[in-house]
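HAUS2 protein
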Amino acid sequence: TLDLTCRRTPCFVKFAEMEEMVNMEAEINEVQPLLLSVFTQFNFAFYFIGEKCKILQDMNKHLEAILKEKRDLRKRLIKHGCQESLPIEATFHKCIVEVLTEAVTFIEELESHLQSVRSIPQIPQMMNNVDTTLSKTEMCVIELEELTDQILKWKELQKEVYS
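Tokens:
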């Protein structure tokens, strides 16, 4: 009969609501410093990434300018200008030819180097994909270990049953 007569009075309902609000405010106050520290770390990270991005963009512009002059550079490197402007001893002619060959090879591979530089902004996405794949692999390893344990237990039970 006491349970039937017991009703929540409006003052206790209000008290419960106030208690819930106080609990929510306490949770917010606990989480707020963590959010602030994470936000600060992200700001620092984005600042440094922005600086590195600016440097890479400047370098990319420089390399693109060199690529535009690629034909002229090839002609100048292939042309036997060494004999015209610089007196080089005969013993060093072989070295000069090797250096010029290396330079021409570098200029030919310049486009692939530029592609590598252009792919740098995609690295964070690639790293996220690697992290995701690593997590999935770890889950598979855990599941495999559990299955191995179950198989070993089943094998022992089978031995006991047959013995």
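The first helix runs from residue 2 to 5.
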